[in-house]
Structure formats: structure tokens, C-alpha cells
Amino acid sequence: MPAQKDNDSPFTSKKCPYCDNYLAIDERFCFSCKKRVGKLNKKTGMAMQPIAWISYLICLLSWAFLGFYIWWAFYKQT
Ligand SMILES: [Zn+2]
Predict the structure, then answer these.
(1) pLDDT for the residue numbered 54
(2) How far is CA 37 from CA 20, 58, 66, in A?
(3) Contact by Cβ (8 Å): 7, 25
(4) Measured distance CA(58)–CA(27) in Å, rounded
(5) Is the full-model pTM beyond 0.90?
(6) Which of 14, 36, 32 has the alpha carbon at shortest distance from 23?
(7) What pLDDT, in 10s, does the model give residues 57-78?
(8) How much distance in Å is there from the Cα of 12 to the middle of ligand 1?
(9) CB-based contact 26:13 (threshold 8 Å)
(10) Which of 4, 2, 25 is nearest to 15 (CA)?
């Protein structure tokens, strides 16, 4: 698959989804609110919000821990 170029994008800047500041297209962090921003959404001109992997991981781990705790507290045979 050939690499696609973004020359057809009508945007020269993108907007921070958190504070509506204008950022450079390749900016990874908003200089105003210091949050991480994703790539440009070509439909809206906004920067996409990066997926919060850490939050998902913590959520998943706490559910796993809860399941383990229930098993340990009620079903574990000694
Ligand atoms: Zn911002």
C-alpha cells in the first residue's frame, strides 16, 4: 500500500478538543492546557482525543481484582 500524503487536507491547523486553542497540525501536546492531543480529524478540523489506555487498563485491572476478591472471599475452598 503506498503511503498517503495529507496534501488534500483543507486545514493548516487543528483545534484542541479541550480548550479550543489552535495548534499546529503535527502538535502532540496542547501548549495552552498541556493535554495530549491526537491527529487532526479532517472532517471537523479538531484534534482527536487520544485513547486513554492507562484508564482502560486501570479499569480492567480493578474489575479483575474484584472478581478475584469475590472468588477468594466466597468460593475458595480451604
Ligand atoms: Zn488545549
Answers:
(1) 84
(2) 11, 21, 32
(3) no
(4) 27
(5) no
(6) 14
(7) 999 999 999 999 999 999 887 6
(8) 17
(9) no
(10) 25
DSSP letter at 12?
S
For 56, half-sphere exposure in the C-beta direction (CA atoms, 13 angstrom radius) is 4
Q: How many angstroms is it from 28 CA to the middle of ligand 1?
A: 11
- Helix count (H) and strand count (E) of the chain? 1, 2
Backbone angles phi, psi at 75, to 5 degrees: -110, -10
Give residue-wise pLDDT tens across range 28-54: 999 999 999 999 999 999 998 887 788
- Return the C-alpha cell found at 68: 478475584
Q: If you measure from the C-alpha of residue 62 to the centroid of ligand 1, how many angstroms do you get, rounded to a whole number?
A: 30
* Distance (Å) from CA 52 to ligand 1 centroid: 16
* Of the candidates 34, 28, 35, the residue with the CA atom closest to the CA atom of residue 14: 28
